[in-house]
Amino acid sequence: MAKPLSVFELTSIVRDALSIERLTNVWVSGELSNFKVHTSGHCYFTLKDERASMRMVMWRSKAASLTFRPLDGMKVLARGSISVYERDGNYQLYVDKLEPVGLGSLYLALEQLKQRLAAEGLFRTERKRPLPGFPRVVAVLTSPTGAAVRDIVTVMERRWPLARVLVFPVVVQGAEAAPSIASALSAVADYPEIDVVVLGRGGGSLEDLWAFNDELVVRAIFACPVPVVSAVGHETDFTLADLVADLRAPTPSAAALSVVPDRQEIERHLTQLASRMQRGIGGKISTSRQYLDYLSVRFQSVSPAHAVARKQQTAEALLLRMQNAVERRLQGAGASLAQQALRLQAISPLNVLARGYSVTRVGGNVLKSEGDVALGDTLTTTLYSGIVYSVVTGKEEAHELRADPKGIRGNRG
Amino acid sequence: MNFEQTLKELEEIAAKLEHGDLALEEALSLYVHGVEALQACQALLAEAEQKVELLVKETRKPFSPQAPI
Q: For residue A276, which residues of chain B lie inside 8 Å, CB to CB?
């Protein structure tokens, strides 16, 4: 009998025997079962058909490029190489590529999931929570190296630097994506200062976005204590994450716009508030001033000094009226006296005498005609300033004197 | 200071000053309060600088998305 081999030696021989071309880079199809993602990121699963099953392992580095989330019962195509795992003494396929067979069944599964979750009420619009107007802390759940996080931070910085951004790094693609996103969403509850969550990734094919259709993610969004904005970056196709989110934004930048206010708008609002306050207090002051003026007028009118002044005014007015009345009467009297005097003066003979006329009397009678005297009669002529006595030495009937005083010479006769 | 609360307070003060039937003294003290709130809001806006942190194993580190990690 040959020297017995050690278990390891025999296992090594088997391993070497299996290292052949036919078992390298081989494609195999089957149904997934017992699919597990280890905390290390490596995936362990079994591929089986009706008659056989085979253990498989996919390292973390390869699993990162998974474009879908492998689920038990899924039909898949795996490519890899067979090797032996010495410790357990079994062989397995070291998978470097895993593809779903017939996306149609996946879509069917998605549709079924969607209907089930809708029936549970996860997508109801009444359940959508309003976003906070002025969030203080915004949690951003995305890949820390992608364009999405850069877009979000840039927009927030520009619009509302008052908000703190807390980035939860998550895997957004591949088999690890769904559990990674779901656990980050449940971790949000541990940070009570968070006001709103933005969950996003920028674009990608529908398969790239598959994690956002995962039931784990959908339920985690539903259970999140604060509003979640989805920004999965696909304009046309809605993922289930979009449906359950409180708000769906078309892109990560749009999500950032929707969660924070616009600083410039707020600054304008502040300016308006300042002028409204200014107008308000200005109006208040001026009405108060007017009221004060009104009060001071009223106060003056009821003060004793004012009463005295008013009585004084009345007294003065009365006095004035009296004076006026007296003056008017005196004036009236004076005027009529003057008139009388004038009239008297006009008919006073003295006045006539003063103008050079004289009155001649004979025997006491006023002499008016030459016929009233005879030659030798003595005439008494009264002048303005005295009396002249004269004797008539001749007489003659006067023609000229009685003639029209305006008469023109030669007009006569 | 909470920006949102202060802004809300400011809006209330403005509305009261515009429509409220206030005593002058009350209006003046409201106005002073309002001006303080306004200045606080403006100062917050002027001085705000965004803080971005990356959560790594439950601890936070300052984060700049421009530098890939």
A: 14, 17-18
- Angle between helical axes of A215-223 and A103-120 (0-180°, round to 10): 20
Per CATH, the number for A122-261 is 3.40.50.10550
User: Which whole number is the average pLDDT over A350-376?
Assistant: 83
Task: With beta carbons under 8 A apart, name residues in chain B contacting A132.
Answer: 4
pLDDT tens per residue, range A133-147: 899 999 999 998 888
Q: Which of A256, A185, A189 is nearest to A214 (CA)?
A: A185
- Nearest CA-CA distance, residue B55 and chain A, Å: 5
Please list the residue range(s) of chain A that carry CATH number 3.40.50.10550. Answer: 122-261
Q: Where in the sequence of chain A do the CATH 2.40.50.140 domains occur?
A: 7-101
Give the distance from residue B37's alpha carbon to the nearest chain A alpha carbon, in angstroms.
Answer: 10
Candidate from A149, A156, A281 with C-beta closest to B27: A281
- Judged by DSSP in three states, B56 sits in strand
State the CB neighbour count (10 A cutoff) for residue A113: 15
The model carries a pTM of 0.55
User: What is the CATH code for A7-101?
Assistant: 2.40.50.140
Beta-carbon contacts of A91 under 8 Å, excluding residues fewer than 6 positions away, are A14, A18, A55, A82, A83, A84, A85
**Cβ contact, residue pair A164, B17, below 8 Å:** no
Percentage with pLDDT > 90 across chain A: 45
- Convert the pLDDT of each residue in B12-62 to its tens digit: 999 998 886 888 888 889 899 999 999 989 888 888 887 888 887 667 777
Among A171, A273, A288, which would you mutate to test the B interface (most chain B Cβ atoms within 10 Å of its Cβ)?
A273
At residue A87, φ and ψ (nearest 5 deg) are -60, -40
ipTM of this complex: 0.83
- Determine contact, residues A36/A43, Cβ cutoff 8 Å: yes
CA-wise closest residue to A204 among A147, A153, A144, A123 = A147
Interface test with B, best of A170, A281, A285, A286 (most B CBs within 10 A): A281
- Check CB contact under 8 Å for A281 and B66: no
The confidence score (pLDDT) of residue A104 equals 54
